[in-house]
Amino acid sequence: MRACGLFIAGLALGLAGCQPASVAPEEATALAPAPLVKREGVSLADATLAVVSLDGAPQAAADDFRQALLRQLGAREVASADAKRARYLVRVYLAASAAEGGANLEYVADVFDISRARVGRLGDGMGLKGTGDAWSLASTEALDAAAAKCADDLAAFLSNRPEARPAGGGAMSYAN
Q: Which residues contact 87 (CB under 8 A, 6 or more apart)?
């Protein structure tokens, strides 16, 4: 009798996976992660960051993106540090691919803590208009815009980490 009950329970669980998925589009997107929002009123001084690699782009584009990213991080008061002293290490991957009417420029930034465990993956992209090779459409302005978005994402991510402290040294309150 007990074996029969286990068999029926196992069969029911197995068949549960065979149900047709009839999820409305708005329900499916409700499960998507919320966009990262930068906490205001926090200091990122202790959430130091080092960009340890930038892969996927031709050398000239990689150099332009790295310089723009470091400039944009500074503008967002994200403290850069040597990789040996930084609390977070970032590996950035750039990709440009042909698309209808131009190209897509995308980045992914993997964020690692000091124990080298990945604690975040951030990414976004933008469309580029024009004709020709995808990387030839990645102008300095396009790379600057992608670096600015990447810096926004990294600053928002770091502002939600434990090292982000209230600006001015006061206690953080979550009460409304």
A: 46, 47, 48, 49, 81, 113, 114, 163
Domains and CATH numbers, the chain: 42-165 (3.40.50.10610)
Residue 109: what are its φ and ψ, rounded to 5°? -120, 115
CA distance 90 to 53: 7
DSSP 135: G
Name every residue whose Cβ is closer than 8 Å to that of residue 158 and which is 6 or more positions away in sequence: 44, 47, 49, 78, 88, 164
How many CA atoms are closer than 13 Å to the CA of 29, on its beta-carbon side?
3
Q: Are 25 and 31 in contact (CB under 8 A)?
A: no
Burial status of residue 123 (CB atoms within 10 A of its CB: 0-12, 13-18, 19 or more): middle
User: What is the reported pTM?
Assistant: 0.74
* Pairwise pLDDT comparison (156 vs 1), residue with the higher score: 156
Identify which of 75, 37, 46 has the alpha carbon closest to the alpha carbon of residue 165: 46
pLDDT, residue 154, reads 94
